[in-house]
Design brief:
With 235 residues, this protein is of the alpha/beta class. The chain has helices spanning 49-56, 79-88, 105-115, 120-133, 149-161, 179-196, 207-213, and strands spanning 5-18, 21-34, 38-42, 64-69, 72-73, 90-94, 167-171, 199-203, 216-221, 224-230. It is built from seven helices and ten strands. The strands form two sheets. A six-stranded mixed β-sheet has the order 6-7-8-3-9-10, sandwiched between helices. Strand 7, helix 6 and strand 8 (199-203) form a beta-alpha-beta unit.
Length: 235
């Protein structure tokens, strides 16, 4: 692995048990990702893409191997430490948006700050700034049912940024969107990567978008890394 790897996995494995049946979702995955890169992860359904992102995000624990982020052994964190890691280091975006329908866009973005003990005025101010960043300030008082799919995903991106994470993990963020809106969402993620220095790991089947915007593309098959293509270097 690269000595300057910001995200590093070594022999990472995940086995799920269903009764007497064991399914290996990941098999001995070793990766090193430098800080500030935009990494695309692709592969067929069942290849282990979401499992890899869930492990990097601290939503699940590996069955074997290790994960280090900025030198910290994430795979050995306690339950409390893992919760703080998810809150302070990771921002996550999902295909299904996962917004609270009873809340406005502004309230959805501000919501995670409640658990961080941030005062209401400051929560709303930060949320409004982030909605402005994703071009949705004018829609801040609208609820998810009053927003298009692309607008909902922009709210989800703003929410993922509200705790000022170092890493943005996006699991099929364009999966429910048309091609034009998909491109807009990936452009936002690319801008956040380039202008804010966020390290972005994005799962996608959109090969053309990955080749246009990602720095590297990792291809998984049956839980193994079968290809890693470097598309561009950053200064």
């Amino acid at each position: 692995m690269d000595v300057d790897g910001f995200i590093e996995t070594k022999d990472l494995g995940k086995v799920y048990t269903f009764g007497a049946v064991q399914v290996a979702a990941l098999r001995s995955v070793t990766l090193s990702v430098a800080r500030g890169r935009l990494i695309g992860v692709t592969g067929a359904s069942g290849s282990g893409k979401s499992t890899l992102v869930n492990l990097l995000g601290g939503l699940d624990r590996p069955s074997s191997g290790s994960i280090r982020v900025d030198g910290r052994l994430v795979s050995d964190l306690s339950k409390k430490e893992l919760a703080l890691y998810r809150r302070n280091t990771i921002g996550m975006i999902f295909q299904s948006f996962n917004l609270v329908n009873a809340y406005t866009a502004l309230e959805n973005v501000a919501f995670p700050l409640l658990f961080a003990g941030v005062a209401k005025k400051d929560r709303l101010q930060r949320a409004e700034e982030l909605l402005r960043t994703v071009g949705l300030e004018a829609r801040k008082d609208h609820r998810p049912t009053e927003l298009s799919g692309g607008e909902q995903q922009r709210v989800a991106i703003a929410r993922a940024l509200v705790n000022q994470p170092q890493i943005l993990l996006a699991d099929e963020p364009t999966g429910n969107l048309d091609s034009k809106t998909s491109r807009q969402i990936v452009e936002i993620l690319s801008d956040l990567n380039r202008h804010r220095g966020l390290t972005v790991v994005m799962i996608s089947h959109e090969q053309a978008l990955l080749r246009e915007f990602a720095d590297e593309v990792i291809r998984l098959h049956d839980g193994d890394v079968v290809d890693r293509e470097v598309l561009r270097q950053k200064p």
